[in-house]
Amino acid sequence: MYIATSRTTCARALLLSIRNTIPMAASPLFSHLKPPSSSSPLPHRIHGPKPFPQVLSSSSSYSGRSPFSSLASVSSSKPHKRIKPPVAALHEIGGVKIAKDDVVRESDPTNNVPDNIFSKIGLQLHRRDNHPLGILKNAIYDYFDASYSSKFVKFDDLCPIVSVQQNFDEVLVPTDHISRSYNDTYYVNTDTVLRCHTSAHQAELLREGHSYFLVTGDVYRRDSIDSTHCPVFHQMEGVRVFAPDEWKGSGTDAASYAAMDLKKCLEGLARHLFAVEMRWVDTYFPFTNPSFELEIYFQEKWMEVLGCGVTEQEILDRNGRKDCVAWAFGLGLERLAMVLFDIPDIRPFWSTDQRFTSQFSEGKLGVKFKQFSKFPPCYKDISFWISDSITENNLCEVVRGIAGDLVEEVKLIDNFTNKKGMTSHCYRIAFRSMERSLTDEEINEMQVVEDL
Ligand code: PHE
Fold this sequence. Notes:
single chain; eight-stranded mixed sheet; four-stranded antiparallel sheet; binds phenylalanine
């Protein structure tokens, strides 16, 4: 097995200068790099002084017990009571040292990376052979090694700090695409982001001349909070490039040949991992055409597990592979691992609790996770008048900033517009610890903002 590292990517990304313009847009949710919506984006500032303008009620009209006194003054520059362990100040990935100050700059309005996200960089769960994500990664490697005589080169410690160019431009994401917004992506500065997909490495690896490669890594998206969404998760990207003599004589054109090969490869992978029903769905990605999603039938529902397609010719042309055709896929490791190991929630992947970690061992794919005592949730409702500057992702970011991994879900439960046209939203926040019962008092205390 060959594992390569990129020492230059990170340094290059970090050296990019800070400009004073901030791309401003807001969207409800990151929606899989689909085409931009026609509605114009709402302007907002991530580190604006008061992201949550007005508190509507202290929950008297809702069923929550003790709401946040105010989120209005919860800004990331204010210290407040936290029950999280301190964040390590330095990470090392693929030989590159990343200091906290390189990534989190609270006074910089072009930066929206919070502490709790920095603490996840460098943990590299996918590189732990006893972790469900590492076990799954290795099982996928086995499939590719066996099917392609170990031709796929594997990268699993490329730095997650990449340039906007790598993350978006080089894979043809349109400049007005919603995924570029500060609402959806973590920006280190205007030119540098935490990669939101492993496709960010496609172009540079093509330029380096690779024709078969797999890239596994942690990816970062500002997102809502529930059992299948976490702002940090893991993806594996696969790319295969064909030279003209590979499809000539096949009787089909290059793109059809690549699409057929791609589907054959991924159906084989799905069969290697589980015995389930599957289906292909046509979709859109800016970097592939045609594009598909593979869905598997799980717990009486169709669940999307990967996106893929035939690489846009422009990407190949720009990166020194003019006469070639290629396919690419990106799969979400947590989703597959949840199915394979019967893990009901995305949060335990980050657990250091022995009762979780001891259940998995190297090479053992599909061991069924046994739920250890699940402590009861503690619910709190919060309501406030909404405005253009508030999005669900911003709210989730604030909640996560205060309560860290104790937040299990943030859910909109009520929506009310008064005669003057002012709208209020009520969110129910579920807090739950894997280690202990949370008390109402401790959550209330967390919610009290110091200057009130
Ligand atoms: N990058 C896409 C995503 O994150 C997945 C993908 C990769 C789709 C490669 C097509 C080709 O959703």
